[in-house]
Amino acid sequence: MKKFYEKYRKKWWFWFIAIVLVLTIVDNIALLFYNPKPDANQDKSSVKYVVPNGIVIDYQSYHSDERGGFYGTDGTEVFEIVVRVNQRRTPEETVDQNYENAYELITNYDLNQYHTFKYKAIAINENGEEYTMMSFNIYAPWIKKIREVWTANGAITAKAYAIDEYIDEGLKRRLN
After folding, report:
1. Residue 73: which of 166, 136, 140, 134 has the closest Cα?
2. Using one digit for the tens of pLDDT, what is the confidence trace for 24-75?
3. Residue 174 backbone phi and psi in degrees, to 5
4. Nearby residues of 40 by Cβ (< 8 Å), 6 or more positions away
5. Which residue from 11, 37, 67, 120 has the highest number of Cβ atoms inside 10 Å of its Cβ?
6. What does the buried/exposed string (b/e) look like for 148-173 if buried means 16 or more CB atoms within 10 Å of the residue's CB?
7. Do strands 116-124 and 77-84 pair parallel, antiparallel, or not at all (unpaired)?
8. How much is the pTM?
9. Whether 117 contacts 153, CB under 8 Å
10. How far apart are CA 104 and CA 99, in angstroms?
11. Which run of H or E residues covers position 147?
12. Contact 98, 85 (CB under 8 A)
């Protein structure tokens, strides 16, 4: 050990590498035991949103002032949901499944408190990349109307009240 010490005592680069390695190991061990507390403002475990045609990826509710307001709706509550869906056999079925999802969400969950319901459907293309298939908004008076009206085909009802609609260009070409 004494020979080792004498040989590397004055070599600063050896001690620099040794110290960096020790610090890296200590840091990685500390990260193993790091357990951050969940955000108190976001309690997503209390409600689980389920849609008939897809999987809910993310949802959030926020005050429109947090995002700078939009369309003159300053001071209102917004509910935004992102759903991963699969494309159906026909483009019409693909579009209708998203309106059906929106109808089910509005009728099965208490969304009357929100001024804006924002729905976004994402899908995975042939390359494995996610893209926005379609999105639309439904505003407060229409949210209440959809809850009041019972219909056998929820897709038709939701489609009638949706505005600010976006449909992917590839899907739109197949629709026409």
Report:
1. 140
2. 898 878 767 665 544 444 454 455 888 888 889 988 888 776 655 555 455 5
3. -70, -25
4. none
5. 120
6. eeeeeebbebbbebbeeeebbeeeee
7. parallel
8. 0.66
9. no
10. 9
11. helix 140-148
12. yes
